[in-house]
Structure formats: structure tokens, C-alpha cells
Fold this sequence. Notes:
CATH architecture of the largest domain: 3-Layer(aba) Sandwich
Oligomer: single chain
Order of helices and strands: EHEHEHEHEHHHHHHHHHHHHH
Amino acid sequence: MMKTSIIWFKTDLRVEDNETLLKAIAQSEQIIPVYCFDDSHFETTAYGFKKTGSFRAQFLLDSVEDFDKNLRKLGSGLVILKGKPEVELAKIVQEYKAQKVFAKREVAFEEKQTEKVVQAELFKLRCELETFSTSTLYHAEDLPFSVKDIPDVFTNFRKKIEKESKIRSVFRKPEQINSPEIPQMKLPTLEDLGLEFSKIDSRAVMQFKGGETEALKRLNHYFFETKSLSTYKETRNGMIGADYSSKFSAWLALGCVSPRFIYAEVKKYEKRYGANDSTYWLIFELLWRDFFRFMFKKHQTKFFLYSGIKSETINSKSLREKLLWQWVNGVTNSDFINANMRELKQTGFMSNRGRQNVASYFCNELNMDWRLGAAYFEETLIDYDVCSNWGNWAYLAGVGNDPRGHRYFNIEKQANDYDKNRAFRDLWLQKK
């Protein structure tokens, strides 16, 4: 058994169902949980947008603070680092003479690069980096195909996996954690991260607050208090209010709750209130999350290329500043697009229906490089998840996993179908 280990937390800020945490506890006499605010996550990207905007950063700060509280209840706490992970983690490894760093495994390109650089620096200190796959519903090792053979069409992926794979049971949270005394946490402020505070507009579907405590509260509300899960399939294309869909995505993105934990709760719910299309549909949506994550494992950098995973490209690569500005600020010639874009800008959230429409509009009507749209979503969305965001944008731009090729939304028809009485447009287009 090792004397001291470090756990490097990233997008796995939870004590329930956290294999990395349990493995570290089992293999070490004492552990030091750390979270590093990576400087590169707060830079401006090549597309001219911030990598992390203020809504998402605020949600992250809430989540880190809540995670520290939950760790302290178990006898530990969170050490906060800020800078380059490879530099900061190396310092803490030397300070505590740690022999191993435990972390969740990454699949997307930049995150993988960071993981490699950290591993190289730790190797120089004779310290090992061990990673665990903790982000998906189905474990990577349980897939009925090798990574290179994962079907590129979701339906084929889903059918095979549902038939041939099992979902593992959740890990219970530890009863206690043995750590040296960890000083009170000093969180950076938004200003320290180069951002300004933005209040979520009062018209928002909900006031999002980060952290595992809030995630479990939301799950309990959506499942057991309101039984909204039973009608999820019928209401999920809604646009106004908190309960037309689960809204779990923001907490899932930071790992404040795991997909497997949600699955286990769905199963409890089904025992109590019965299974139907809606209870299945929530699991179906979690499968989409898995699919994009495994796609990134398979195709690596391709999802960040203009041509995506296809060789022939359809979209224009143009950048017309004025059109981009109009789209971002919700002053295009489509009131349905404008309402959705204003909701995003002022709350950090947009419905699934809205996202598909504004992405289709961006790629097809404005004929712009889809990656600019994806980069703006990266900055703005509270629930930004690298695989789902870039995977969905590539899909809608016709360079991703859509078997039908170029998907084109008739925006007017969509507005009439999903905002019949104009309630959503009236809400967001009114003069304040």
C-alpha cells in the first residue's frame, strides 16, 4: 500500500459513484484531493471566444465549493491549484512525496494532451498517473466492439450495446477519507479567472447552481417529487419552464452526478411508478452522451476539423463578422432564432430544440464555418461538454454522425410546431 496519493479531480466533482476516489482510498494510507483551475481553460480561443464564459465559470466555482464541503464531511477537503496542471501537480507531488496520482480518463484531444504532459512530468518524479473511465453509462471495457469498430451511426451503436452489454452498478460513496489536515479552501474569484459576474436573467428556465448537492436535489425533484420523468418523452421539446426536461446536463458535464447514478435512480423510479416510453427515453438520451464520448475516442482530432469525420465538405468556410454578430446577439431576420440566442446569451442555457435550430440556421442560412458556432456555445453554455457540443455541431453541419447527410431545419415550420402561440418568442423578444 502506498503512503500518500493525490487525486486530481476534473469533471468528476462528486463523492457518489466515483471509482477514482474509491480506488485511491483503497490503495493509499492517506490521500490529498486536488482541483486545478487550468489557465488554458480561461484563455480566448482561435475563434475569438473565451474558452469558458462567466455563467459556466460561476457554475464551476459553485461545484468546486460544494465538493469541498462534501469531502470535509468525510474527513478530507480539496486543495485548490491554479496554473498549468503539469507544473502545479508536480509541485504538490513533491510537497507530499506522493507516489501516485489518480484521475479520470479523458478522451477529447486537448484534454488528452494535458493528461500526457502531466504524465510525463510526474514520470520525472517517479510518480505514476493512473486513470479510470468514469464518465459514461456503459463502461468502455464492456462495449461489444473495439474502439476502432464502434459504429458511426447511433442507431446501430444503440441496438448492439443494449442487446450485448450490461450497465455496471454504482459505487457507494466512501464512509470516510483519511487525509492530512487540508487547509480551508481559497477559491479564485471570477475576476481572478479574467471574467466578470453575470446574473442569470430572471426569465431563465431555472437558476442553475453547481454542485453534487444541487444535482441530487434536482434529480429528486424531477423524479420523485413531481414525477415529471413519466411524461419526459412528450414534454422534452418544450422551451419554457424548468420541468419540460430533466436539465441534468449541466451537472453531468462537471460530473456532479454520474450517468450510472441517474440510471440506477430511473430503475428505482420504474419499480415504484412503472416503466414507460418516457423512463426509457431518459436512458436513451444518456446513451447519446456515451455515443459522442466514444466517437471522440475513435476519431480523436477529427471533430475539431472543418471537414469533421467526413472527407467531403458541404458548408462554406466564410466568416462574415456582421452575420456572426447578428447571430450571437439575436438580431437576425428570424424571430425564433433571435429568441433562442437571447436566452442563451442572458442565461447560459438553451433548449435542445433551440440548439438544433440555431445550429442549422448558422450552417445553412448563414453558411458559416460551423466551428465558430461550436466555439461560441463552448464559451456560453453552462452545460458545455466537449464531446456532446462538438459532436452535435458536426452532426448538424453534415460532417458528423448523421446518416442522412445534411440536416436542414425549416425554421418557420419549427417555430410554428414548437412555439405555436409565440409564448417563447414573446418572452425573450419583449423590450425590457
